[in-house]
Amino acid sequence: MSSALLVMDVQRDIVAAVDDGSEYLPRLRRAIDGARAADIPVIYVVIALRPGFPEVGTRNRALAAIAQAGLYVEGAPGTEIHPDVAPRPGDVVVTKKRASAFSGSDLDLVLRARGIDSLVLTGIATSAVVLSTLCRANDLDFGLTVLSDACLDPDPEVHRVLTERLFPQWADVLTADDWVKTLVSR
């Protein structure tokens, strides 16, 4: 199997709103470094909406709230990937328009073109991009791993239930350090 590490929605404004000093970014950085050392592609996924939000419908409550707050506009500083985990030159950055990394993006095309059939998921928020992407990737028959402590959610109990109860039904769930250890033992 050919794998890729997805780093999803780890953008300045999202990190500022959710990370409470939990050492999330250093854990994610270790996963990124481990993937690179094992020659596993790191693919970044960001949410970025057009100025004026023409792609946001009024029935989508989450996106309507984002538009109302004026968040995640293409080119805005807060929409940039957090510098602590920023991509390197040549890394793929996929822009999405909804919760799932597959929605409104060319992620599936990028993965298929590279022969990737297994995904390692990380990101903010566990209950949004990670959950939505996991569901879609499962439907698309990707092999799946979720790095539980390289995902973050504003609600710790929701994160716990997802990573301990729901995600294991569809994916291997490991910590970032345990996953990196599996790469070294290959």
Automatic annotation (TrEMBL):
Keyword NADP: no
Gene3D superfamilies for this protein: Isochorismatase-like
Keyword Iron: no
Database matches in CDD domains: cysteine_hydrolases (cd00431)
Superkingdom of source: Bacteria
One function term, GO molecular function aspect: hydrolase activity
Residues of the Isochorismatase-like domain: 3-178
InterPro entries: Isochorismatase-like_dom (IPR000868), Isochorismatase-like_hydrls (IPR050272), Isochorismatase-like_sf (IPR036380)
Name this protein carries in UniProt: Cysteine hydrolase family protein
Species, as recorded: Streptomyces longisporoflavus
